[in-house]
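Supplementary Text 2. Reproducibility record for the structural model of the 175-residue chain.

All settings were left at their defaults, and a single model was retained for analysis rather than an ensemble. We include the record here because the model underlies the residue-level annotations in Supplementary Table 4.
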Amino acid sequence: MVDSRTYAFEGTSPTIDEQAHVSRDATLVGDVTIEADASVWPGVVLRGDIGPVHVGHQAHIGDNATLHASTIGNDAMIGHGAVLNEATVEDRALVGFNATVNADATVGERSIVAEGTVVPNEYNIPPESFVRGVPAKVTPLEETRIDPEEIFEEFSSGAYTNLAERHEDLFEYRD
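Retained model, structure tokens:
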């Protein structure tokens, strides 16, 4: 059976852990790896052609996000409509709705990128930072009133894995 949402590129096909939740309405192309308990929601495009896409354990990629040749760490969260191009998002980081993370940029561990933010090429966000604006401006989380534990618990927790498990029909494989 050929799964109609995955496509090989130059002989390399996506690899999906059997414990991952990938919507039948997501598109995966080429060198894509999705680890256990991760979720990939409807409308997502993961394109591993010029470089691999890696989605870490219990990471979540929200509806209509596009990731091209990017690496997402464990327990990270990519919000709806976000665009990442040749970027790295480290463990337990959160990229907000409609944010853009450009080529060779890194979002440090446990950092939060606000919705709508544009992270320029080759920009390195230190761990535990809050990033916002166009272009992005970094503030250490400790200098904000943001409670990172509350944010990470709400958006980057096992609750999202549980939500994916409850959407049985959404994550069924197509014939």
